[in-house]
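Hi W., the cobalt (II) ion complex you wanted:
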Amino acid sequence: MTRQKINLKSKAEIQKMRESGKILAYILNLLSAKIVPGVSGDEIEEIAKKEIKKHNSIPSFLNYKIYKEGIPFPSCVCFSVNDEIVHGFPYGKIIKEGDIVGIDLGVKFEGFHSDSAVTIGAGKIDEKARKLIEVTKNSLYKGIEQVKSGNRSGDIGFAIQNYVEENGLSIVRDLVGHGVGRSVHEAPEVPNYGNKGEGFKLCEGMTFAIEPMVNEKSYNISCDNDQWTIRTVDGKLSAHFEHTVAVVKDGCKILTKL
Ligand code: MF3
Ligand code: CO
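Structure:
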């Protein structure tokens, strides 16, 4: 594996990323409140597009390509329903009572990206969906608690995986968190699984996204023919939460909150 350079950010750069993250948090909050039975993915995409523009920002995901030859991502939001883990498209989807909807959004403001995701239940959801969402959200904060200089990425991964598995759920391995900054995806990779004391050492100025994806049963994934939509192999539910964080002098700063 070739190791890419980690771009450390200055205090002023982290401040810019915080501004980007504030805008993102505001929009993601707005979108979350719209997730009710009957809402369409197209409506959510429209609101996101309008709000990003209103805040003098640029959508990070629209037209993004993972591979040179790949299909560009077609929307501002990733909209992943029920067994879709991440990278679903919003178009043509109508939300029903009991669905769980992952909304993932990235914005670029004054040169700096931020990346965050939530999973929201539409109307009344059943107990297993409620628990899946709660455990996934808590697991993100278990990971965030480990963010301080001197700790290692494996401390983050271990804390997430351990908590998820204690709760009888499984953590996706094939997709990981990532550095965020002038690019939406930068080095390093930040796995949501691992062993304490292993992985790269965290140091002041690092900015990255932690994004646990938690499945009800099997952690294995499959990708649709659209080259983007990632779903559970067994058709069971999956949830996703994500924050962009910075390693700062006295610990960790969550950049993507209000
Ligand atoms: N938060 C997601 C990720 O980091 C969203 C990426 S969508 C993409 O994988 F279009 F940018 F790939
Ligand atoms: Co991300």
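Residues 61, 64, 73, 78, 87, 104, 115, 117, 178, 184, 211, 242 surround MF3 (ligand 1) (CB under 6 Å).

W.
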